Each structure stands twice: as structure tokens, then as C-alpha cells.
From TrEMBL:
InterPro entries from the UniProt entry: DUF5648 (IPR043708)
UniProt entry keywords in alphabetical sequence: Signal
Keyword flag Signal: yes
Residue ranges annotated for the DUF5648 domain, each copy included: 49-185
Record's protein name: DUF5648 domain-containing protein
A Pfam family per the record: DUF5648
Span of the signal peptide: 1-19
Length: 189
């Protein structure tokens, strides 16, 4: 299959622009003295808290951007208030992707993913039900985001954290396996 030079150049430009960090600038021309255009980040003011609650008896954590839902889990379901995991965006823009939230009633596990394929696989073959889009997350390390780590226990329940020490302890002492980075959230300020 022969690719046209125009197609290859367009593909290379798209890859390079997508890979640029937020504080990078892009030149409109080839002259280094020309004005540079900054790559825009989503408006931080739109970032909303991602609340975190935990139930040590179930070895389960719950994450939501809905304040009322969070307090229901704490007050009625007896989860502990673990504070915040970071901030997600409440609406989609060109730099964010949806975080799908699923639930397995048999394991009490809430599962979060940015992958449509993984979402569909968990629904069709692993007993999960789709609940909603939890929010929108940065898929790469642009805009000064911090990684939201995803882990899984031997019992196949998931745990998410932005704290590298907490991730290390979960893997080293609690039997979790590290699955990777779900995406990048904004720090709580």
C-alpha cells in the first residue's frame, strides 16, 4: 500500500500536535522568530472534585463527582470519607476523554475506564453494569495533570489513587497489581 506524501505529512503533524505538552507553543510558520501559539488546556475552573470513599470491610473504594451520592455512601452505606482523588472535568472538550463508571453487584466493585472496548467487555463478559460517565479526564500528561493510578486486587476489585506511596503500599503489602494510569486529573487546590 502506497501512502501519499501529503497523507504522511498530515499524519505526522497530527501526532506531533497531540503529543505536545500544554505549555508548549506551536509556530505558524518555519521562522523561529514568528509568533508562537500556545496549546490550550481545558479551563481549570471547570474541574470538579472527584470524591473518594472507602469501605475496609468490603475492601472497596468508591469515586464520584456527585456530592450527594458521595455523602449517601458515607452516611447510609457506612463508607469512610477518604477525601478527594483529584479533579475531573464536568464536560468534554477536545483534550479530554470520558471516564466510564461500571458496577458489579456481586463483588461490590466500581470499575472506571476510558476505553469503550474495555467498558463493553466488562459489561458483556464480566457481570458489570454501566452506570454513567463519571467525568472527563486528560488522557496524557498535558496541562500539569497528575496520574490517576489503577490497581486490581486478587479478588478482582479495583483501586485508584494519585498517591505513588499509596500505590506502592497497595502493591507491596495488600496484594494489588498495578494496571497502569487511567488518565491525568487536576490537583485539589
Amino acid at each position: 500500500m502506497k501512502l501519499s506524501p501529503t497523507f504522511v505529512l498530515a499524519l505526522l503533524c497530527a501526532i506531533l500536535v497531540k503529543a505536545l505538552p500544554a505549555n508548549t507553543t506551536v509556530s505558524e510558520g518555519s521562522d523561529d522568530n514568528e509568533e508562537k501559539i500556545p496549546v490550550p488546556c481545558p479551563d481549570f475552573q471547570r474541574a470538579i472534585p472527584l470524591f473518594r470513599a472507602g469501605n475496609p470491610q468490603l475492601r472497596n473504594h468508591f469515586y464520584t463527582t456527585d456530592y450527594n451520592e458521595f455523602w449517601y455512601m458515607v452516611m447510609e452505606r457506612k463508607y469512610l470519607n477518604d477525601g478527594y482523588a483529584g479533579r475531573l472535568y464536568d464536560t468534554h472538550d477536545r483534550y479530554t476523554v470520558p471516564v466510564y463508571r461500571l458496577y458489579n453487584q456481586w463483588t461490590y466493585d466500581h470499575f472506571y475506564t476510558t476505553s469503550e472496548w474495555e467498558r463493553d467487555d466488562y459489561i458483556s463478559s464480566r457481570g458489570y453494569q454501566y452506570e454513567r460517565v463519571a467525568g472527563y479526564i486528560l488522557p496524557s500528561d498535558i496541562c500539569s495533570g497528575i496520574p490517576l493510578f489503577r490497581l486490581i486486587s486478587r479478588a478482582k476489585t479495583h483501586f485508584y489513587t494519585t498517591n505513588p506511596k499509596e500505590r506502592y503500599e497497595a502493591v507491596t503489602y495488600q496484594g494489588y497489581a498495578y494496571e497502569g494510569i487511567l488518565g491525568y486529573v487536576q490537583e485539589m487546590r
